[in-house]
Design brief:
Largest sheet: 7 strands, mixed
Distance between the termini: 37 Å
CATH topology of the largest domain: Beta Polymerase, domain 2
Radius of gyration: 34 Å
Strand content: 15-25%
Low-confidence stretches: 1-33
Helix content: 40-55%
CATH superfamily of the largest domain: CorA soluble domain-like
Length: 365
Amino acid sequence: MAKHGLLPIPDAINPFRIRKQRLMNFNPVDAGSTRKPVDKVQITVFEYDGEMVHEEVMDHVNGCFRFSETSTIKWINVDGVRREEVEAICNHFKIHYLLMEDILSEGQRAKMDEIGDNLFCLLPMMYFRPESSSVEQEQVSMVLGKNVVISFQDDPGRDVFNPVRERLRTSGTKLRNSGADYLLYALLDVIVDNYFIVMDKLGERIELMEDIIPRQPNNRTLGRINYLRKEMQLFKRGIAPVREVMNGLLKSENRLLEESTTKYFKDVYDHIIQATDLTENYRDMVMSLQELYHAQMNLKLNEVMKVLAVVTTLLAPLTVITGIYGMNFEFMPELKHHNGYFFVLGMMALIFAGMIWIFKKRGWF
């Protein structure tokens, strides 16, 4: 936890610069277009049933084709999306061309399709980068076939599927004794559960800002509030369509989905609704931060105006007196008095002190 008064965002990171770079790198024409090629593709295969589990990592796509001939459950996870490998897998497992194009495209909205003998899900996998307090997302595509789930993701260096892998390696778990549809549920479940982890991190930033704003209502604080608000919007836009994905799975009558698994998809559906509602609450909290910032700025301005008003009021009588005796009239009796100068200064000091006493008594400062 950062100390009060400091956000865990390095000074070298400018929120406006980060957002500007994102906007400059985004091209609406490219949304949904074919992704850039990757240097390396890694394929991990889990083959299992209630009695055994076999795990194998391979660099060439042909190695996973032999698993299509077995009756056990298979999870084929492809890290790094490249057209050559995706086409080979789709052709071998008879995945429709339209689904293949969805896998190869990027920047797509979360969706669910049923084409041919396959059920297809596409949704974002969310990450939180603490170095910049930013939300990052990775597109994940999953294809459910007979006794097989094939998943495609961009970054081989990170994902949220480790809990599923551990359950597969452990004998006697429900995952090991269930079908491929339950495996699809398990993968969707860990993705949605990770949304809450990202939201918790964003919530911590909101709480920090609530402590910082009353002490540092400046332009830098306003920039951090706007940056946090835009990250919340990015997160909300990413997860909102996942609700439709889960709703489509619940309404599907595909023979690949067993009736006994429906209740588990309903649980994920409830979680994504909860995540969406929580995102709305966090968005409202960020908007409240902006209101708090403006209130603090108005309070600060009011304090400045109060000081200026008091100073002006204290000097007003003195200005009147000096103005009167600054007139160039010849017949002013006080001007001939031997101690007139000291008398006027004393009267001015008495008036000044009396006004200060009255202001303090009334609690004006």
